[in-house]
Description:
Order of helices and strands: EEEHEEHEHHHEHEHEEHHEE
Bound molecules: adenosine-5'-diphosphate
CATH architecture: 3-Layer(aba) Sandwich
Shape: globular
Amino acid sequence: xxxxxxxxxxxxxxxxxxxxxxxxxxxxxxxxxxxxxxxxxxxxxxxxxxxxxxxxxxxxxxxxxxxxxxxxxxxxxxxxxxxxxxxxxxxxxxxxxxxxxxxxxxxxxxxxxxxxxxxxxxxxxxxxxxxxxxxxxxxxxxxxxxxxxxxxxxxxxxxxxxxxxxxxxxxxxxxxxxxxxxxxxxxxxxxxxxxxxxxxxxxxxxxxxxxxxxxxxxxxxxxxxxxxxxxxxxxxxxxxxxxxxxxxxxxxxxxxxxxxxxxxxxxxxxxx
Length: 272
Ligand code: ADP
């Protein structure tokens, strides 16, 4: 498994009996959970199970119909957006930019919540932006228009902007779904390094169970908007849970090469 988190002390987010729906369609129902600091969480579940909705509720983009969400002990609704943006960064599933901003300009936007009203980036901000771009190997794209990049390149820019924000919490919504394995591992490594060294809390909606095993300290399995199962990765990444959540037969075993659990799947009888 992914090793021990640097710090785990006190609830960062508390969700009490949270329900949410789009129009009349209920999506999350009576959801209660406590996210701790310094931990890497994986949010897993089939398409449409409510993972994105949960992340959007956590960062205040959506508001619960009932129940309460507390961040650092204060109701989320009491946080000013700018103060929240200094603490929480979201890497959305679809990274959309309206104008032809360059990669550098977009990564620099990560610093905006830390600047005063008419303040510009200073030398330290530029240094940080340069370091993050080099770390995610997008420094060679710095002057390119983001809208002309591939999906995977855009995802790396979105992660770079979020890291430039230097948040205490990073919400990743399938942030590596378009990436090749090299860039997937370098992004997960960069993020996990910050979790271990700086106590960054990470909550990542993911599909790949093996990436989740590699990256996450704890997993939450959602199904139809309900929290079906949660706990330390080594305890809840089990064939019976995978079968219940996805309806798929799987084998889970410790892999000495990967140094964590890995999952193998078998196609339904008769499909192969
Ligand atoms: P996941 O991230 O697990 O795929 P989502 O949270 O995106 O799931 O979606 C949960 C459910 O809510 C799905 O049935 C989806 O169709 C529905 N949904 C998501 N966004 C909207 C929206 N803006 N309007 C109406 N329904 C939505």
